Amino acid sequence: MNRLRHRDLLLTLKYSTIEACFSVPMLNLTMPNFAFVIAFAVSVLGWGPQAIGLAAALPHLCNFAQPVVTAALRRAFSTYQIMCLSFIFSALPWGLVAFLPWLSSGQDLAFGGLLLVATLANSIGSVTWSTAIAEVVPERISGRYFGRRNLLFGAWTLLVVMFAGHMADRGGRSLATFGWIFAAAGASRLVGLFFLTRMKFPASVTGRSARALALDDLRAVSRDTNYLWLIAFIGLWGLLLNIGMPFYTMFLMDGPGLSVGDVVKLTTTGSLGGILTLKGWGMLADRFGSKPVLLVAATVWSLVALAAWSLAGPTWKLHLYASYFVIGATTAGLQLCQFNLMVKLVPAERRAAYVSTFFALTSLLTALGPTLGGWLLGRIPDHLGEFLGQPIRDFHVVFGLSLLGCLLVTNLLHRVREPAEQPVGEVWRTMRTMRSFNPMLALATMGALLITPSGLLGLARRSVRTVKRQVKVLSDVGEELVEGGHEALKAPFTRRD
Question: Which of 177, 252, 273, 404 is the most exposed place for a label (fewest CB within 10 A)?
Answer without folding.
Answer: 404
